[in-house]
Design brief:
heterodimer, A: 115 residues, alpha+beta, Alpha-Beta Plaits, two-stranded antiparallel ribbon, 3 helices, 6 strands, flat, B: 378 residues, mainly alpha, Serine Threonine Protein Phosphatase 5, Tetratricopeptide repeat, globular
Chain lengths: 115, 378
Amino acid sequence: MKYVLLFVGTMEDQERFENLSQEDLATGIEAAGKWFEEYSRAGKIVGGEQLKGPQTATTVRFKDGKPIVTDGPFIESKEIIGGFAIVQVADLDEALEMAKTWPAGPVEVWPAVER
Amino acid sequence: MVRIIGNFDIAEEVVQDSLLAALEKWPEQGIPDRPGAWLMTTARRRAIDLLRRDQRYAEKVALLERSTVSPEPVEADDRLRLIFTCCHPALAQEAQVALTLRAVAGFTTQEIAAAFLVSEPTMAQRIVRAKRKIVEANIPYRVPQGTQLVPRLDAVIAVLYLMFNEGYLSRGPGAAMRRDLAEDALWLASLLTRLLPDQAEVLGLLALMKLHLARSRARFDAAGEMVLLPDQDRALWDAAEIADGVGLLHRAAALNARGPYQLQGAIAAVHAESASWEKTDWAQIVLLYDSLLGFTDTPVVRLNRAVALSRIASPQVALGEVNDLAISLGGYHLFHATRAELLDEVGERALAREARLQALELCHNPAERALLERKLRS
């Protein structure tokens, strides 16, 4: 079954991330990279991306059927999505085990619709 | 059935149907030699009927028709799988409790709603949502293995303990109409000790429940009024149950894996084995609370420790400790009730009355309310 792992955080997390020293940033990126690499090698990861900061996001919403483009993410401004991974695993427990080893903060685990 | 069918809704429906069929047929035809196997066969047939109507489960029908009735021991495993699925941490804890009662203990939705004082549609929705999540998120139907077992077992134990407390605390004359959650929690806990005999905390949980239930007969007087521990007639306590509980704690201790439920069981055992409130080994109880704080440092544990402390130190010292908990426990009626008792002991009658009034305002349990009102009148 497919799950999407959303790497989430708060605006404060984002600020902390942006103000990391070169060294700490490199260590963090390396840890996350290693996570992706290991699970990809095990055939568990189908896809995934790191996202740019929330100040770069744009939302298209609809009012009376007409699209309206606005600056910023749609979700509550206090929360952000830093990235995501699409994983192919047996069940929720396996997805949760992967989430528990993510080195960079909270993870939301969403099951994907099967077609 | 869940394992074979892989669909929680249908599996539960057919199990309920088969139990109904059993209730109709067994009195006429007698109980079959292997009742478990009979139920499985009936449930399997019923599942095939239901699934045939549903094209999406076509491949599962094939699986069911191939499957044969398993020997008895597998049923115990199935029940254990069911408990772990119902108590999966991906479900809200209130849903875990409701599902366990529904799927493992066989409560009706109406009975669960009554036990938790919510409306039947609310409870039905809670159960439907939880079942849907099990299916949609693909929560596995299995007993966790290796390092995953103990943390998952903690969730199961927490559910059973919550179930027990809900039943035990709401006991009393007014609750007689409701199905007894405490008895069912005890049954589930003893089932768990048989399925996982080497888990010390499961034994500790069962011991704790037994030691509390052993005091049942002394908790209400002839007039139906609640009687607290210091005033209970200890001759009414069930000595056999107490011995059972203490025996379980010894078995748990031999496994060398201390935990919060064993410690709470040990505290209950000290009380159970004391000749009177005055002769209680309070120093031992304070020590046990200190160990308990090492596992779960919560304001409620600190409150209970303060009560024990008042017996070996002084009510003034205990009152100081209790007052420190005012911010975290201000909304908890037993905080104010405990404070009232200690204030009485140091002669602060007016302040005690004030605290008791606050306790009354926060308390919803009829038996406890009656007790507070009685104390306010005296």
